[in-house]
Amino acid sequence: MENNNVEILLIEDNKNDAELAIRAFRKANLNNHLIHLKNGVEALEFLFGTGKFDVRDISKKPKVILLDLKMPKLNGLEVLAQIKANEQTKAIPVVVLTSSKEHPDIKRAYALGANSYIVKPVEFDDFSKVVTDLGFYWLLKNQPHV
Amino acid sequence: MDNKEKTIELIIANKKLAFQNQEKEKRAHELVSANKELAFQKKEKDKRAAELLLANKELAYQNEQKDKRAAELVLANEELAYQNEQKDKRAAELILANEELAYQKELKKKRASELSNSNKEVDDLEKRVKERTEDLESFSYSVSHDLRTPLRAINGYAKMLEEDYGTVLDAEGLRFLGEVRSNANKMGVLIDDLLTFSRLGRKGITKSTVDMNMLLETVLSALNQSMTHNAEIKFSNLLLAVADYNLLQHVLTNLLLNAIKYSSKKEKPMIEIKSEQKNGEIIYSISDNGVGFDMQYGNKLFGVFQRLHDDEEFSGNGVGLAIVKRIIDKHDGNVWAVGKEGQGATFYFSLPDNDK
């Protein structure tokens, strides 16, 4: 898939969760413009056109970023802070996906400008539904900033 | 003797006589004077005698007074002696009291140092509790995150297997797969319940006035959406509660789910919710005509992981009522249950009546 035509940017270090999410998007026919990046460093390189994404046209922005919080190196909150602190990227909706509603960082995520905070359900059908719903909402219902 | 001589003699004699007369008169005069003096002196003597008499009387009186005084002095001396004795006694008592005071002062000092020691212990304990709570919170988060992630994978891949390869599995294979998924789900619910239970220990409550009739309607419509049951559920004119809305919803959902579950094997399951005001409390009750329980084990109902039925008979993880108890405890209320095997159960919870 071409890096300049991305609608969903999935930032997720757990390959199982990523596979389940991608499957759910595929079942809803929402996976055509999805890119999965495995950590925060890659994600920022993609968004700011640096590192291995230095040829990418960064004016082409994803319609939604799905961001896992617990990641090695640069964690989700750090990635979120950088996205929301940058004029180029701060209007992109960021949906924080996490395994736990116990997360002490829910407040921090919202304070940093997260647009939504979603707990990944254990039950696969529920998980599929959540992923599909948020795909439909941000890709089809939501009117983007630009 | 011639006349002349005679005359002279006479004259002389006269003169002598005259002198003697004069002397005599003088003497008479002096006598009168002496008499007068005597009379005066006698008068004086009488006066003195009278004065002496008076003085004697005075002396006698003064003697009498002196005796009286002496008697009084004796008394006063006795009194003084008594008071001296008392004073000595008091002094001895004072010495004792001083000793006691000194002892108590020392004791106070000891107590103060003990108190400051135990205050320090309390501070240390509080610090440790805080640290432990923080540990527990991060542990909860880890449990929640780290256990849910592989569970989601188990569940998800089992489902994918079923979706993509269901056709190449026989009925028994599909059943195994179903068991994998349903157990993964059970574990998910258990983790969520345990986390709810531990979160309730830390979170404060926000009280408001809750219309229990409306809350029950809400709970019932949510229950009816998520499950099918044939229980007849009755309630009317329930008293208002002052409680945390969300937590109370949790309590009612839990108790109703239990009532539905444990009466589900009856032909006509009946559930009734009532309320009454009693001794400054409002007591709510949820009764069912289900399997009931043996009161002998009633105290185990509200403990974590405690169950009175096996999973085959009625599924459950033994956390639900522990959560209910923790919520009601937080509201300074009580939970209890009354039941008999095969004859239904009634679960009660009380909340402080804020009108009282």
Automatic annotation (TrEMBL), chain A:
GO terms, biological process? phosphorelay signal transduction system
Q: Which UniProt keywords apply?
A: Phosphoprotein
Modified residues annotated as 4-aspartylphosphate in this record: D68
State the InterPro entries in the record: CheY-like_superfamily, Sig_transdc_resp-reg_receiver, TCS_response_regulator
Phosphoprotein among the record's keywords? yes
Q: Name one Pfam family in it.
A: Response_reg
The protein's superkingdom reads: Bacteria
Response regulatory domain: which residues? 7-135
User: What is the name of the protein in this document?
Assistant: CheY-like chemotaxis protein
Annotated source species: Gelidibacter algens
From TrEMBL, chain B:
Q: Any coiled-coil ranges, and where?
A: 108-135
A biological process (GO) of this protein is: osmosensory signaling via phosphorelay pathway
Q: What class of enzyme is it?
A: transferase
Q: Which reaction does it catalyse?
A: ATP + protein L-histidine = ADP + protein N-phospho-L-histidine
Superkingdom, natural source: Bacteria
Record keywords: Coiled coil, Kinase, Phosphoprotein, Transferase
Signal peptide start-end: none
- Under Enzyme Commission nomenclature, its number is 2.7.13.3
| SUPFAM superfamilies to which the protein is assigned, alphabetical | ATPase domain of HSP90 chaperone/DNA topoisomerase II/histidine kinase, Homodimeric domain of signal transducing histidine kinase
Question: Which residues does the UniProt record annotate as the domain Histidine kinase?
Answer: 142-355
Q: What CDD domains does the annotation carry?
A: HisKA (cd00082)
Instruction: Give the Gene3D superfamilies listed for this entry.
Output: 1.10.287.130, Histidine kinase-like ATPase, C-terminal domain
Q: Recall the GO molecular function terms of this protein's record.
A: phosphorelay response regulator activity; phosphorelay sensor kinase activity; protein kinase activator activity
PANTHER family reported for this sequence:
BACTERIOPHYTOCHROME (PTHR42878:SF15), TWO-COMPONENT HISTIDINE KINASE (PTHR42878)
Query: What is this protein identified as?
Result: histidine kinase
Which species is listed as the source? Gelidibacter algens
